[in-house]
Amino acid sequence: MPDLTLFVAPMTCARVPTIALEEIGVPFSTELVRTAANQQNSPEFLKLNPKGKVPTLLIDGAPLTENVAILSWLHRTYPDAGLLPPVSDDLERHRQIADLAFFSATIHPLVTRIAMPVKFIEDKALSFDTVRPTGMAAMKPMAAMIDERLANGPWWYGDRWSIVDGYLFWAWWRITGVGFPGDEFPNIQSHQARISERPSVVRAMHREADYIDILKSEGLYRAPR
Ligand SMILES: N[C@@H](CCC(=O)N[C@@H](CS)C(=O)NCC(=O)O)C(=O)O
């Protein structure tokens, strides 16, 4: 069994592989990266991930980065965990990669615009007045598409829960937490309520609460706003 260490920060997309690992049920350890202290850009961390991002998964000491790669590796290594549904051919397998890539490459950049607009324009007032609304406007048609898909739910793949649902959970939690109008998308809202009760998600959220306590005790917690 490989030795697994996941580098994480609360409220970030590192929540998605945390849910995956909780779902799999193998032992793993976590390392908290203090983003408010810019630890992600420390020389030690950049040696593991030169992009300076979480999640980063150490597998027997060797780093793997990018959610799409980490989630795909976890699925291939622990196929019985059902992180993705069984496929009947290679095209279907690649469609699942497309779904992960959709959340990583289309949805996540919009989440960043909405949740962390100061990453794009340093002036706070300007970033909240321009970048955030632009992100919200771009997110709405994506949310409408996801909402329509979930009408055949309860999950992204119909009856089968998958880690794509975990990805949606994180993105939705992040944007509705800073004012994105979730109520306009009732199927996603009920998906959110449903997945929040899943034991792997509950455990991942407990882990985050613990990280937040540590950050608060160190004066390094920044609440979403
Ligand atoms: N494409 C990457 C994105 C990773 C990413 O942007 N992580 C954010 C947290 S959600 C991060 O580490 N931000 C720290 C920073 O940019 O300084 C993935 O899917 O793993």
What are the low-pLDDT stretches, counting only 5+ consecutive residues below 50?
none
Distance between the termini: 41 Å
Morphology: globular
Named at the architecture level, the CATH assignment of the largest domain is: Up-down Bundle
Number of strands: 4
Main β sheet profile: 4 strands, mixed
What are the secondary-structure elements, in order, as H or E?
EHEHEEHHHHHH
Lateral strand order in the biggest sheet: 2-1-3-4
Domain count: the total is 2
Rg over CA atoms: 17 Å
CATH topology of the largest domain: Glutathione S-transferase Yfyf (Class Pi), Chain A, domain 2
Structural class: alpha+beta
Can you count the helices? 8
What is the top-level CATH class of the largest domain? Answer: Mainly Alpha
Strand portion: 5-15%
Bound molecules: glutathione
Average pLDDT taken over every residue: 97
What is the helix fraction of residues, given as a range? 55-70%
In brief:
By secondary structure, the protein is an alpha+beta fold. It has eight helices and four strands; from the N terminus they run E-H-E-H-E-E-H-H-H-H-H-H. The chain has helices at residues 15-24, 43-48, 67-77, 90-115, 124-150, 163-176, 186-196, 199-217; strands at residues 4-8, 29-32, 56-59, 62-65.
Write out key terms for the chains shown.
globular; 8% strand; Glutathione S-transferase Yfyf (Class Pi), Chain A, domain 2; Glutaredoxin; single chain; 225 residues; 4-stranded mixed sheet; 4 strands; alpha+beta; binds glutathione
List the helices and strands and how they pair.
Layout: E1 4-8, H1 15-24, E2 29-32, H2 43-48, E3 56-59, E4 62-65, H3 67-77, H4 90-115, H5 124-150, H6 163-176, H7 186-196, H8 199-217
Helix pairs in contact: 1-3, 1-6, 1-8, 3-4, 4-5, 4-6, 5-7, 6-7
The chain binds glutathione.
